[in-house]
Amino acid sequence: MTQFAETTGTAVETETAYELTALDRCDACGAQAYIRVQVANGELLFCAHHGRKHQEKLSQIAHSWHDESARLLADTAR
Ligand SMILES: [Zn+2]
């Protein structure tokens, strides 16, 4: 039973890889957000540029780091 639950959890995580939309905006500059960082008192949104800029500092306090910046390549190709 435990094995089954673990397998299912992994599958769900992979399928919900893209959670950010055009309505999610970078907290630093207002551009579309591609990175979501969960911290103790809430969550922060960053564009790819500011996500990388603050990554070193934030990774020390972040509970989870959700990065969709790979989508930038796909969006630009259109
Ligand atoms: Zn930004």
UniProtKB/TrEMBL annotation:
The organism's taxonomic lineage, starting at the top: Bacteria, Bacillati, Actinomycetota, Actinomycetes, Micrococcales
Protein name: DUF7455 domain-containing protein
Top-rank taxon: Bacteria
Annotated DUF7455 domain residues: 20-72
